[in-house]
């Protein structure tokens, strides 16, 4: 089954220099029919205006992923971490038993645009830990680059989480294929451009800000269809 959620269907807020787009129930936005998709609890897109951001707040037993699309995001928390996150950087924090963290735009002239995703951890009460890795546009071009995942290696999460996240820049006319197992789900989000999804369920056209929620076994084909020459997307394979 493939369900498309368009950009227009996301819950939108704009206050105190922060523009927010929520794909699932989050904060004051409550929809009992749209609370999560598998282990993905939140998929938020934020734009922080210059010198704006989120003050320290407390979270526990969540794995939080930051993926910066434009600008520089400053992340800090009470473990002593202070990071400047830029496009091409993926940051993962397993909040574990609890951490106070904040995200801000320290620039006086440029906006920051980023994705923040929340996942259920493998188990509760783990020690707070961080993971950060970098990738290039060349590595994403016309392939599905795993930017975080379970198992071993440079892209592994600090504690086992049964999630693999891919990033791809797909040139117009280029195709990628993917076999989704019967007990898995995929959340696909288009950052920019236009992507065509083909499977036994049919053909679906999605554009920037749209998401596809895919579950049960599928042989998937993704085709770049942007008039601007390329499309960018994030794909999450999870239980």
UniProtKB/TrEMBL annotation:
Pfam families named among the record's database cross-references: Pirin, Pirin_C_2
Domain Pirin N-terminal: 12-118
Domain Quercetin 2,3-dioxygenase C-terminal cupin residues, every copy: 150-238
Xref: InterPro entries: Pirin, Pirin_N_dom, Quercetinase_C, RmlC-like_jellyroll, RmlC_Cupin_sf
Domain of life: Bacteria
Assigned protein family: Belongs to the pirin family.
PANTHER family attached to this UniProt entry: QUERCETIN 2,3-DIOXYGENASE
This protein's name: Pimeloyl-CoA dehydrogenase
